[in-house]
From TrEMBL:
Lineage: Archaea, Methanobacteriati, Methanobacteriota, Stenosarchaea group, Halobacteria
Ranges for domain Phosphoribosyltransferase: 150-260
Organism from which the protein derives: Haloquadratum walsbyi J07HQW2
Similarity section: Belongs to the ribose-phosphate pyrophosphokinase family. Class III (archaeal) subfamily.
Catalytic activity as recorded in UniProt: D-ribose 5-phosphate + ATP = 5-phospho-alpha-D-ribose 1-diphosphate + AMP + H(+)
Enzyme Commission number(s) from the entry: 2.7.6.1
Descriptive protein name: Ribose-phosphate pyrophosphokinase
InterPro entries associated with the record: Pribosyltran_N (IPR029099), PRTase-like (IPR029057), PRTase_dom (IPR000836), Rib-P_diPkinase (IPR005946), Rib-P_diPkinase_arc (IPR037514)
Length: 290
């Protein structure tokens, strides 16, 4: 049975179709004191595939509750799909006294799951924080599916060097174009500095690709540089469209053609589904484990 977290209801439904598995009814309630209660009233079968993006503290707690609920209801195998795993950017103690939040979260959910599936976590090394089998899926190639054909001299560019592999994956699927990246220095949560390369972007269609849009500062700074350089149209592709703190408006004001996001976080811009990629990963590990 596919068991959806409250933030991943559309993706869970698409995955249920992909895997030809029933979709469980889940209730999401809140007590007067603010505590959440996620429940699976009629869980049936042996295997539970929980699909739960953990973009808020509440959805983290919900995930723990869903894992416990299906185990209590008799599930003999629990697969936890975390389309967007919150707290992964705190993957080390950046200052004395800080927690490694990603590790704390992984430790919390590991005892109640047999396998974990992640999609483009901020750092792949987050997989090491879990006890069991972890599969990491790359959804970047699918971002190319929503781009229009016939882009003019397309350039696929990453806002920093760490995302250039994502930009390259999108270019490879699109089939044509060059790749590049900015040199980015982050001064604060709201201030990033970017140095452009020598690439001439005038009259070219540009696709900026990153793993996540949080506040939108990174992407809007990149877009402004590209428009200043005379780019024809600027598209944005991201795996996780978190779009916090007015990010959508920042992007529009910077001058974009379209934002293409996946459904790891369900937003209006989530035009690409990661369900086929997740289904393939689950089926592949099934074969591997037989
Ligand atoms: C940073 O390394 C990430 O890849 C993203 O570029 C970053 O998290 C985006 O954050 P924001 O949208 O707040 O600039």
């Amino acid at each position: 049975m596919i068991v959806p977290g409250s933030s991943s209801q559309a993706l869970a439904s698409t995955l249920a179709t992909e895997l030809n598995e029933p979709l469980a009814e889940v209730t999401y309630d809140r007590f007067p004191d603010g505590e959440t209660l996620a429940a699976v009233p009629e869980f049936g079968g042996d295997r539970a595939i929980i699909v739960a993006t953990t973009d808020t503290n509440d959805t983290w707690v919900e995930l723990l509750q869903l894992q416990d609920a299906v185990t209590e209801a008799g599930a003999t195998e629990v697969i936890t799909v975390i389309p967007y795993m919150g707290y992964t950017r705190q993957d080390r103690a950046f200052k004395s006294g800080h927690p490694v939040s990603a590790r704390a979260m992984a430790r919390a959910i590991s005892p109640t799951t047999d396998r974990v599936v992640l999609i483009n976590p901020h750092e792949q090394s987050v997989a090491d924080f879990f006890d069991g089998h972890v599969t990491i899926c790359d959804a970047a190639p699918h971002l190319a599916e929503s781009l229009p054909s016939g882009l003019s001299e397309p350039l696929f560019i990453a806002p920093d060097s760490s995302a250039v592999e994502l930009a390259t994956a999108v270019r490879d699927t699109y089939g044509t174009g060059s790749t590049d990246y900015f040199e980015k220095t982050r001064h604060s949560g709201t201030d990033v500095e970017m140095i452009t390369s020598d690439t001439d972007v005038s009259n070219r269609d540009v696709v900026v690709v990153d793993d996540i849009i949080a506040t939108g500062v990174t992407m809007s700074t990149a877009v402004s540089h590209l428009n200043d350089g005379g780019a024809a149209r600027v598209y944005i592709g991201c795996i996780h469209p978190l779009l916090a703190r007015g990010a959508r408006t920042k992007l529009e004001r910077a001058g974009i053609e379209q934002v293409i996001g996946t459904d790891t976080i369900e937003q209006e811009v989530s035009v690409v589904s990661v369900a086929p990629t997740v289904a393939t990963a689950i089926n592949a590990v099934d074969v591997e484990m037989r």
